[in-house]
Each structure stands twice: as structure tokens, then as C-alpha cells.
Amino acid sequence: MNWNNITLTIVFLSLAGPGIVGNILVFVRYVHNSALGTEKKPLDLILIHLAFSNLIIICSTGIRDLATVFSFRNFLGDIGCKAAVYLARMARGLSICTTCLLSVLQAVTISPRTTIWTKLKPQTSFQVLPFLLLFWIVNVLISSNLLSYIKAGSGLNRSVVATYIGHCYMLQSRHIIKWFFLSLMTLRDVIFQSLMGWSSGSMALHLYKHHKRVLYLHSSRSANNSPPEIRATWSVLILMACFLFFYWVDFIISFYTGFTVAHDSILLNIKTFLELGYASFSPYVLISRDVHVPNVLRAH
């Protein structure tokens, strides 16, 4: 095992292990809420879906990385490579859409009741299901081109130009197909990130107004004990900041490697960190801001 594989193993284990544990805790906590709670909250279903999407990202990326680290030539094969890369890309899209939905829902929740946005707030988890179903349809279709252009390294002709993505290779597609799916991905990301930007700005403005009101209160108890909706808003804003950081750095590196067909081990390790980063860190943002998560362990 060379130094590059050792570095990749360290990066993977340091993110995948805690990430799986954290997402399982969030998943179990909100499934527990939905199963035993009398009121099915939309937020619970969104967080369950986000944790599930993160687990798909970690597991599918992890299988590919393990095959790379231990040089298992026939471990995945073409079908395994297609499944691992496709699931990782699709789940990443689901994570983008779900994070956006979470942000918009929180912005609508804390908006003044007199505004028109409160009419758009879903009252039950069943009203969120059509959005989640739409996310699955959109991302399944947008990622479908990968099924034709992903190949395992063991069965690849060395004369073929392809992009190395960790044990697997992505063949060069025709420009019209490449730009069509790239345009769809860009359109999806622009729409959902624009909604994130609007909702984040709305929440930041609300927190600023709340902070100004708190300054009038001289009681430290009132200042320190923020209402639950304020704590939830801070959690969503921190998630937005984490998401935007990992997304844009990964986008820049992917753009560079995709158009230069570069095979740089350092860039691949950085991409692995970025691919797993948000999926691994986001559950701990929710756990750190939610004092009720440990109650799940006591309940069991």
C-alpha cells in the first residue's frame, strides 16, 4: 500500500465512520419521533430523508474508495462501478434538494404570520412527500447518463481517453450529450441554490431583528435561552454554510479534472474529503443544536 492509498484510507475512515454513526443517530431520532409522535411534522420527514441521502453518499463512495485502496481489480466490475458512481451522484443531488427544502421550510416557519409565505408552509409530513418524490425523479433522470459512460478500470482499453474517478473511469461522451446533462445539473443547482440564498438571507434578517430585540432585555437568562425556532434557524444557517463550502470547492476541482482529464492523487484525495464532508458533518450540526437527540438512546 503506497502513501496515496494510506492518505485516502485515513481521509475515508476519519469521515465515513463518524458520518455513518451521526446520520444513523439523526435517522433513528426522527423516525422515533414520527412513529411515536401524535403529530407528523414535515421537518421530521425532511431530516429523515437528508440522513438517508447522506448514508447513500457515504456508503457508495466508500465502496469505491475501498476498492481503490486495496487494489481489488475485479471487486466492482462494470456493474459495480456504475452502481457506486450513479448512487453517489444521485444521492448528492438529493442532498442538495433536501437541504434546500429544509432551508425554505425553516425560513417560512419563522416568517411573520401576516406574510403570504405562511400559507405555503406544509402542515403535515404527507404534504412534503410530493416534493421528495419529485426530487427522486429529477435526480434519477439527471444522473442517468452515467450508466452509459462509467467503466471499471480492469476492463478498460488503455487507448481510450477517460477520467479516473477512483477505481472507476468515466468515458468521454459526445459533446451534445455532455453539455445537455451538464446544463440540466447546472439548472438544478442554480434553482435550488437560489432558493437557499433567499431563505438564508431571510433567516439572517430575522435573526438580526431578534438580536436587536434581545439587546433591550437586560436579563442574561432571557438572552441566553433562545427560543427553539431560533436555535433551529441557527442550525439551518450553519448547514447552509457547510453545504456551500463543500459544494463550491468540489465543483471547482471537478470542473478542472473533468476538462483536463487529470489523474492527480492529491486532487482525488481532496475530492474524497469534499464528497464525504457535508454528508459526515451535517448530522453533527443537527445533533449539537438539538438537545433532544440523546433522548433517543435513553428511550431505547
TrEMBL record:
A GO-annotated cellular component: plasma membrane
Keywords assigned: Cell membrane, G-protein coupled receptor, Glycoprotein, Membrane, Pheromone response, Receptor, Transducer, Transmembrane, Transmembrane helix
Q: What Pfam families has UniProt attached to this entry?
A: V1R
Mind listing the GO biological process terms from this record? response to pheromone; sensory perception of chemical stimulus
Organism equals: Mus musculus
- Residue intervals of the G-protein coupled receptors family 1 profile domain: 22-286
Cited InterPro entries: GPCR_Rhodpsn_7TM (IPR017452), Vmron_rcpt_1 (IPR004072)
Q: What is this protein called?
A: Vomeronasal type-1 receptor
Native organism taxonomy:
Eukaryota, Metazoa, Chordata, Craniata, Vertebrata
Q: Which superkingdom does the taxonomy of this entry point to?
A: Eukaryota
Task: State the protein's purpose.
Answer: Putative pheromone receptor.
Entry's transmembrane regions: 6-31, 43-63, 128-150, 229-249
Q: Which family does this protein fall into?
A: Belongs to the G-protein coupled receptor 1 family.
